[in-house]
Amino acid sequence: MRKYVIMGVQGSGKGTQSQLLCDDLDLVHIAVGDIFRWHVKNHTKIGAQVRRTMNAGDLVGDDLVEKIVRERLDGHDWNYGFVIDGFPRNGRQAEFFMESYDIDGVIHLELAEDEVRRRVLSRRLCPNCGMDYNLIADRPQVEGRCDICGHELITREDDTPEALDARLRDYNEKTRPVLELFRRKEFVHDIDASPSADEVQQSIRAALGLPDYKPAD
């Protein structure tokens, strides 16, 4: 069983790299942000709370995040392991996680802030089917329309310049120190996230001692 944490600033490719690992190794991708977005889309009480927080560019409170993570991992559908992204984001969450679960490694995706801004502000989302796009590398076939369902694409509420500035501040002040906690107790692998997704995935595999990545034809 393999259990990994993947960390990195918004736009560093955590979701993409997690999915590549999971698809190849039969791991479960646990994306805390996706769980919260599901609640927002389905208008749950948690979703209303999360929407207010995300619109302000703030991070969701520790109690709620830990509750969501605990409930998700208690599902035990990760027979071969998991990759969790979007968690932990501060010292308290890291302590909770390390006390509750053994992990095999921490993947830290490093990306310069100017590239973060370029990537994040180019993201688009289909509010109907949830398909993600990036105007840099994954443009829709028809400008502004989802390839799957044809719905008009939108910018995520948390992908505005103001919200991004707030998230970068939070990451530098609260999340970066988490890496130091992990470095004392766990294996942290620093990975350059600026090359192509395939190259980044290969670097992750090499750092974790996993079989080479073979992109699909």
From TrEMBL:
AMP binds at R37, D58, L59, V60, G86, F87, P88, R89, Q93, R156, R167. Consists of three domains, a large central CORE domain and two small peripheral domains, NMPbind and LID, which undergo movements during catalysis. The LID domain closes over the site of phosphoryl transfer upon ATP binding. Assembling and dissambling the active center during each catalytic cycle provides an effective means to prevent ATP hydrolysis. Some bacteria have evolved a zinc-coordinating structure that stabilizes the LID domain. Zn(2+) binds at C126, C129, C146, C149. One of its GO terms (biological process) is AMP salvage. ATP binds at G11, S12, G13, K14, G15, T16, R123, P195. The keyword Metal-binding applies. Its EC number is 2.7.4.3. It is found in: Cytoplasm. Residues 123-158 form the Adenylate kinase active site lid domain. One of its GO terms (molecular function) is AMP kinase activity. CDD domains: ADK (cd01428). It catalyses: AMP + ATP = 2 ADP. Catalyzes the reversible transfer of the terminal phosphate group between ATP and AMP. Plays an important role in cellular energy homeostasis and in adenine nucleotide metabolism. Pathway: Purine metabolism; AMP biosynthesis via salvage pathway; AMP from ADP: step 1/1. This is Adenylate kinase. Keywords: ATP-binding, Cytoplasm, Kinase, Metal-binding, Nucleotide biosynthesis, Nucleotide-binding, Transferase, Zinc. Residues 31-60 are annotated as: NMP. Its main location: cytoplasm. Belongs to the adenylate kinase family. Residues 122-159 are annotated as: LID. Gene3D superfamilies: P-loop containing nucleotide triphosphate hydrolases.
